[in-house]
Amino acid sequence: MSRPLLRCCGSSTRTRVSSRNYASQAPKARLNLPTDYGKTPLLHHTSKAALANPELSEDVRNGGTTRINLFQSINQAMAHALRTDPKVILFGEDVAFGGVFRCSMNLQTEFGDDRVFNTPLSEQGLVGFAIGAALEGLKPLAEIQFADYVYPAFDQIVNEAAKIRYRYGHNADVYNCGGLVIRMPTGGVGHGALYHSQSPESLFSHVPGFRVVQPRSPSQAKGLLLAALESPDPVIFMEPKILYRAAVEHVPNEPYTLPLSKAEVLKEGKDITMVSYGTPLYVCQNAITAAEKDFGCSVELIDLRTIFPWDRPAILDSVKKTGRCIVVHESMVNQGVGAEVAATVQEHCFLRLEAPVQRVAGLTTHTGLAYEKFHIPDVVRIYDSIKTVIEY
Amino acid sequence: MDFTKPSQLGVIPTYRVMSPEGVLEDPSRPPVGVTDEQVLEWYRNMLTGALASKVSAGEEAVTVGSAAALGRDDVITCQYRETGVFQQRGFTLKDFMSQLMSNRNDPGRGRNMPVHYSGKNKVGAHAIASTLGTQIPHATGAAYALKMEALENPTDPPKVAAAYFGEGAASEGDFHGALNVAATRGCPVLFLCRNNGYAISTPASEQYRGDGIASRGVGYGIETLRVDGTDIFAVYEATREARRKALEDGGRPILLEFMSYRVHHHSTSDDSLAYRTRSEVEAWKGQAYPIARLRKWMENNKLWDDTLEQTTRKEIRSAVLKELVEAEKEKRPALKHVFTDVYAEITEEAEQQREELRRLLRRYPDEYDWHEYDGGIEGL
């Protein structure tokens, strides 16, 4: 299914391009097969699995679950927030009719035009507006239509929102941008090319002040988004757009929060620490399954969840155990999250390391449409990096 | 096919109450509804602003006059050339000087450059940033929050937000975004533009080609007035009326363009004679200087004379000097504030960096002077 993403579209559009399949696989591939989201261990395929999460409170664990996808879980989280806190407002381009990815479906109908509305086409205008509203005690959910279009708002983000608490000094506890959440669809889809594939998390992590979060699944997104709205710090919430429809799982019905700046060990292992976030985690899991079978090794998979400030102790503890580290992300390898993790790991675990820290990340080039399959980290590259560190 | 030419539409007229000679321009109009006490207070505030900080020279009427017309609980965002706003709304000389000296009494904890005040608690104005224009959409957002608040508490007196900015900052995209969102969402916000003729060295003729900033309001569907910014009564009346209009129909934005002149240099690092003539500066100072004009008014109305002028100036100068000297003697904030207030809680990594800094200060005590910081090395 390759449907070109157009900036303004919400529903599918007829196009001749659908005959060109940029997301096809090589006929004899064994490793580079598309992720089967219906079977991946990273999603909860049963109610029991969803409720077993130790991070959930007892009330939530005693409740039921519903099988929903990522845009539905985000919709649910936002509906809950709008329903229970009159300070929450939601706005952005095309938010009123339901949003180009359906995250805001029915929300204007239920909550009215005062609380859920369209802004004119201006990222700098809407983020500036959000900051002013946050400083008067509202909790603005500001939606940027694609992470690729956040840049006009970059000044407001790094020069204003990120610095407001700091420049208020004495009155910082009263005047800060806590409650401000900027949401944006992020990451590659296989045919998004230059301007519908970007993942700029490291740009926001090179200036302090925001918490930068990327959920990997519907159940994670619900809890992390609700936590973001309660955080005393402003949050950038980056939603992996390819997962909006693809990731379907059981999600607890009750509202709940998950901790920010805490990584999660998805799978324990003893030979290698693999660190990632967002969509690549699924590809990591596929590579791990094949590698553990082929090489007999045991890999520990960790989801950072919050890119910055990140859970350094969790990663360092893991590497002290395994002695090997691989970081995987879609965005360009240079100056990225991998660089930050690798530098920190070698600084604190140098004598323990059995191999250099590997980064499997986007190539140092743009995400050209025809080349996406070669650019974004796939099962082969991750599988191969596991082989490298084992044989080092 | 009739193209609309900008020149067809004519220049937007300038509202004025008081002539340069300090009398009503139109003697038949009703008297200005301002008490003698208020006039004297305004004059003192303008004078204090001028003597304490030269950056707003020529624009004192714009800031003091407009601030006087805003509600006590209205929310204000500004640039850094609005000392008069802070002054009129209750900032003391000690507050000003503490920030200028980055000492431990500065609410901003010494983090910002001089004149970048932090005063929301006291005067309802957002902490100032150096980036131009970023504050304009903040006022739009604040106004929206105030509008929602008014819907929940309809018996409370309603509030507006106001954004101050210069004609240069109005070229930034944030100006456009702010006005457009305010108009489409019906936000009760006043956009107060100080057109002082210069953005550092760039004269207005190189900043825009249209009819000033006022002509832009109409383009966004916003009611607009151009005002003589050196006439404090015009500024006051216009702002008061703009505020009243902004609260109509559930809330809407209003644009005011105050015409004035930046008498002083852009900053202490600028020498403006590099880009303008002394005679230009002198012409404005002589003819239109807002403080001189109000003084003429007060003298015409027997409220002021030379003696009062001398004693008041002397009094203000010595108060300013006293606070300046005191502020200079004060310690800087504690060193731990290098790390605080980035996040609500200091992170684990920042804690480690703090330890590391402590270690370095102890190992190389002669390389750093921590004594001027509150608590010295113990304050880290």
UniProtKB/TrEMBL annotation, chain A:
It catalyses: N(6)-[(R)-lipoyl]-L-lysyl-[protein] + 3-methyl-2-oxobutanoate + H(+) = N(6)-[(R)-S(8)-2-methylpropanoyldihydrolipoyl]-L-lysyl-[protein] + CO2. It comes from the Eukaryota. Pfam families: Transket_pyr (PF02779), Transketolase_C (PF02780). Residues 68-246 form the Transketolase-like pyrimidine-binding domain. InterPro entries: THDP-binding, Transketo_C/PFOR_II, Transketolase-like_Pyr-bd, Transketolase_C. Transmembrane segments: none annotated. Its EC number is 1.2.4.4. This is 3-methyl-2-oxobutanoate dehydrogenase (2-methylpropanoyl-transferring).
From TrEMBL, chain B:
Its cofactor is thiamine diphosphate. SUPFAM superfamilies: Thiamin diphosphate-binding fold (THDP-binding). GO terms for molecular function: branched-chain 2-oxo acid dehydrogenase activity. Residues 55-334 form the Dehydrogenase E1 component domain. Keywords: Oxidoreductase, Thiamine pyrophosphate. The keyword Chaperone does not apply. InterPro entries: Alpha-ketoacid_DH_E1_comp, DH_E1, THDP-binding. It catalyses: N(6)-[(R)-lipoyl]-L-lysyl-[protein] + 3-methyl-2-oxobutanoate + H(+) = N(6)-[(R)-S(8)-2-methylpropanoyldihydrolipoyl]-L-lysyl-[protein] + CO2. Its EC number is 1.2.4.4. It is an enzyme of class 1 (oxidoreductase). GO terms for biological process: branched-chain amino acid catabolic process. It comes from the Eukaryota. Belongs to the BCKDHA family. The branched-chain alpha-keto dehydrogenase complex catalyzes the overall conversion of alpha-keto acids to acyl-CoA and CO(2). It contains multiple copies of three enzymatic components: branched-chain alpha-keto acid decarboxylase (E1), lipoamide acyltransferase (E2) and lipoamide dehydrogenase (E3). This is 2-oxoisovalerate dehydrogenase subunit alpha. It comes from Extremus antarcticus. The lineage of its organism: Eukaryota, Fungi, Dikarya, Ascomycota, Pezizomycotina.
